[in-house]
Fold:
Amino acid sequence: MINRRSFIKTSAALSAGLLISPKLFAYDKKYIGLQLYTVRDYMQKDPAATLARVAQIGYTTVEGATYTGNEKFYGMDPAAFASLLKQNGLVMPSCHYRLGEEQVNGSSPKGTILNDWGRAVDDAAAVGVKYMVCAFLSVPERGTLEHYKKIADDFNKAGETCKKAGIQLCYHNHDFEFIQEDGKYPYETLLANTDKELVKMEMDLYWVTKANQDPIALISEHPGRFPLWHIKDMDNTANRMFTEVGNGTIDFKKIFKHAGKAGLKYFFVEQDKCPADAYDSITQSITYIKKNLV
Structure:
């Protein structure tokens, strides 16, 4: 017979099992995202028409590619941009930002992690952004491993501000973070010196692969640390350039089997350069995704 104490112990064990179940952390398959940098030329000319076309192609989420303290979201204030997203049945759970350490015209741009971050967080919350992502470190913003430790401290502080607004801070990698210094990668330094609750990672599967790293190994070493992914494929040439999802050498089917362990919540198609029309490229990518990944 199961007494009350045994029942409580059994329930607790089952609950613990659920907490580590990959299915609990699996992404919602109705969300197929596009990083708007892919269609940046169109967004610059006509954001409304571009978002309408993106939705018509079949994307349900977008990730902002730019935010500045003056222009905010593609020249619109948060309310106007949120309304435009809603009109097209889109949500923007994530947006890219800059560190702001590099000086531009003698000063740090506003709306960056190091300058007027509080206002950027407020604007993000008004649009419904759940993840604020440091998109890139310019060459002057990089440096030694000691400098990356300072950047990690900056991220932790920014992550605290995000947390108060119910937002998660993330960092998006390229390949330069995997150039060793004294036998260590800057990416390892960022992972080790940031609070794993305050700072998550947006794993760019293309750049990790181009840096000759294994995305699955990184996920295994840091489970739950990668709620966001960028997916773009790598062509089968000596230069290993960008190509549409499913048109190259990256085994997305294999990697997506580890989505639960990664803690994946949203993924975004991003193609930095397209061979012809960007709309054609994102259509090809989503066709493959719908058939093979969701």
Remarks:
- Residues 145-164 form the longest helix (20 residues).
- The two ends are 44 Å apart (CA to CA).
